[in-house]
Design brief:
The protein is mainly beta. 8% of the residues lie in helices and 62% in strands. The chain contains one helix and ten strands; from the N terminus they run αββββββββββ. The protein has a ten-stranded antiparallel sheet with strand order 1-2-3-4-5-6-7-8-9-10, covered by helices on one side. 2% of the residues are buried.
Length: 165
Amino acid sequence: MKGFIFFFVFVASSVFAYENVSDGEQEYLLVPLDSEVVVGRTKRQTSAVYDFTSKRGTLSHTGTILDNNKHNLMGTGAISGGKHQPVGIGAGLDYTHKPSASTFSASANHLRGFGTDVGASGRYNFVNKPNTQAYVGGNYNRHFGGPFGTGRPNYGAFVGLTHRF
């Protein structure tokens, strides 16, 4: 735990050389570190954000794990915390089957003392033409642990048809 606190303080203090960005109501400190897609390489983005209003910082990293003509798999991980606030850790995977535009996503987020949220969703396009898409899909979410215990699962399924005239 001491190592995490030292790392978080180091990252937070090292970004104060950058100017603040304001949306009129809140100020943010943004530090994006990009590497563009190069043939044979993956795209990655790391960012650090500090919200001066809530005094909470977030460090996140997103990267392409696999990308070819048929498949795309991206992963994301993040950690956040602040003064007198619990530490949050989260991760997710997003998959796309390019020929059919079918998708699948899974994620998990844990907030110390408040439990873990786990979710998955998917959509399968069994007709994927320029003007018509027919698809089925589903989702599942559940909260585990925390002061109120494990919650009941939320899940659903759907069928859809989209046509452009």
